[in-house]
Amino acid sequence: MQQLIQGNEACALGAMLAGCSFFAGYPISPSSEIMEMMGRLLPARGGTFVQMEDEIASMGAVIGASWTGAKAMTATSGPGFSLMQENIGYAAMTETPCVIVDSQRVGPSTGMPTMPAQGDVMQARWGSHGDRAAIVLTASSVLDTYKMTIEAFNLAERYRLPVVLLLDATLSHMRENMDFPDAQVHSRARPGADNGFEPFGGPEFMAFGNGTRFMVTGLTHDETGHAQTSNGAAGERMLRRLMGRLEADADHVTHFKRHRLEDAQLVFISYGITARAARAAVDELRADGVRAGVLELLTLWPFPEALVSEIAGGADAVVVPELNLGQVALLVRAVSGDRLVVPLGRMDGSLLQPSEIAAAGREALNGGGSTR
Amino acid sequence: MRHGQDLREYLREEAMPNVWCPGCGHGNVMNALTRAFDAMALDLDNVVVVGGIGCASRMPFFLDTNSMHTTHGRALSFATGVKLARPNLTVMAVMGDGDALAIGGNHLIHACRRNIDLTALVLNNEIYGMTGGQLAPTTPQGFRSMTSSLGSIDAPFDAVELALAAGATYVARTTTFDFDEMPQLIEAAIRHPGFALVEVLSQCPTYFGRLNKLGQGRKLLDYEKDMTEPLEGVTRDELVGKLPIGVFREEIRPEYTRRYAALCERARRGAHG
């Protein structure tokens, strides 16, 4: 039976289905309902919920909990996401599975706390100092918010990474009817017995209190966890191993949707809440005889270069509508050769309308385009 | 572990030598901590020691426990996550004065407020050692550091007063001069069912001693001795101008993980009507 569910509720319900047993957070619009719902659900189900003193502490507690074996998450918005970055880098360095939900609002700074934006695409990838492996997902509907939350946990567990799910103020607060689909749940691999276990030697994870004592450090370290502060070879080897694994598994990590792309000469590449408007624009254009389609990205990082390159390469013009001033457009341009790629950005707290997207598409087909 | 072990059994010898300078007090604190482990016959499989960043926060590397070396100032937030998720583990945070009282001050007061069953060891050497001798939130007024070369004009924090005001239920202070009492204080803190803070004045000859012309090793222990006075058996007048040492509070109040367990029980009952 279908139920009317809010985006933030779908996220919390997806987390519970995925096996989340630990939530630490700090209230912030427009993500707070995720935290409120986890606070209602977890205590009765044997999980742990805690409201921390700030987002830095929330991220620290999430990582600490993950090292006891818990599937752990936090949810926040831009300012809190900025505060979490150092500890997100720590989670990456220590290969700690965890999930961070960022319901995006207009920034920078306090910006417009209740209005939607998609300005954290780059921060989600590069917000912490240094190079690292990263997985960043997004969604454009309440149902997909549910599914992608589950997928965020599954990927975090499979690759031992902090996985970011980007929502936005509109998706977080909108309600849609949905069925709860069946879902596969993946949990981190445990090491086999007596196999010379190395705590940072691969995807196998040993939680604290299980009889093998080791060091977890944000310093560059080797597979055993020993710090190597003047010999970075082990650190680079481990980073390349993980990034290589993500690359090799691109088919499992890359999620996307095609909407009327088959014969499209005009392609919109979009994601999140804006992809909905792009689909409506395509339907409007198709009714006028314009062969248009949408590639909706559900995985933003690792950026699906081959997919975007292939689809952009088959089009006459590509338009990238997004609620920022060209973050994904920059990536699309980088892999689209000499194809015309037109950014269509907006960051005034309003959503892009189908009519604006359609107009930008027509203009692009005529060889012009906004550089807004 | 059995009581009466060779204390090296508690150390991760492959991580040696440690990073501490000759004459530093931090090794003595680690020595006292292993004595406390030994006196309690703790099973190290169930002990988690979390450090932040700095000289003191390197201690988890050298202890053969489940060890975390985290981000600057945040040790208590990581420790809180570990303890909440697995309340049966013995969880400690080892921090320096900058870690605990400057960048991590917010986490410290909130851990006190929750009265969560963690032990915070604050190794106070009144200066930033790891970064080369800069001003700490505990540097006394008038004292020199690399960022207060004319003498500090900042009022120092008193970790004990802060923890008492914030609601910690076991609060003690000692010095590396008073080494003999340190293992028992740490043991009492670990056994205490609530948030326990032990501040240890620990000497830094490399920066604090040198920049303030206080000399090395033993002279710095004399400096600690001269600036402190045992809390018990002295009058208020005798404490004037001195930093009191001893146990300032030891009381039982509802502990956070137990309150959370009770809340879960209420939630489960509620869920079943």
Short description:
Chain A has 372 residues and is of the alpha/beta class.
Strand content of chain B: 15-25%
Helix/strand order of chain A, N-terminal first: EHEHEHEHEEHEHEHEEHHEEHEEHEHEH
Shape of chain B: globular
Which homologous superfamily in CATH is the superfamily of chain B? Thiamin diphosphate (ThDP)-binding fold, Pyr/PP domains
CATH topology of the largest domain in chain A: Rossmann fold
Q: What's the helical proportion of residues of chain A?
A: 25-40%
**What's the rounded overall pLDDT mean of chain A?**
96
How large is the share of residues in beta strands of chain A?
15-25%
In percent, how helical is the residue content of chain B?
25-40%
Description of the molecule:
The complex is a heterodimer of chains A (372) and B (273). With 372 residues, chain A is of the alpha/beta class. Chain A has two domains: 253 residues, Thiamin diphosphate (ThDP)-binding fold, Pyr/PP domains (Rossmann fold, 3-Layer(aba) Sandwich); 108 residues, Rossmann fold (3-Layer(aba) Sandwich). Helix content of chain A is 38%, strand content 22%. Chain A is built from 13 helices and 16 strands. In chain A, strands 2, 3, 4, 5, 6, 7, 8 and 14 form an eight-stranded mixed β-sheet that branches. A five-stranded mixed β-sheet of chain A has the order 11-13-12-15-16, sandwiched between helices. In chain A, helix 6 links the parallel strand 7 and strand 8. The longest helix of chain A has 18 residues. Chain A is globular, with a radius of gyration of 21 Å. The model of chain A has no long low-confidence stretch (mean pLDDT 96). Chain B has a single domain, classed as Rossmann fold (3-Layer(aba) Sandwich), CATH 3.40.50. An eight-stranded mixed β-sheet of chain B has the order 2-1-3-4-6-5-8-7, sandwiched between helices. In chain B, helix 4 packs across helix 5. In chain B, 52% of the residues are buried. Strand 10 of chain A pairs parallel with strand 2 of chain B, so a sheet runs across the interface.
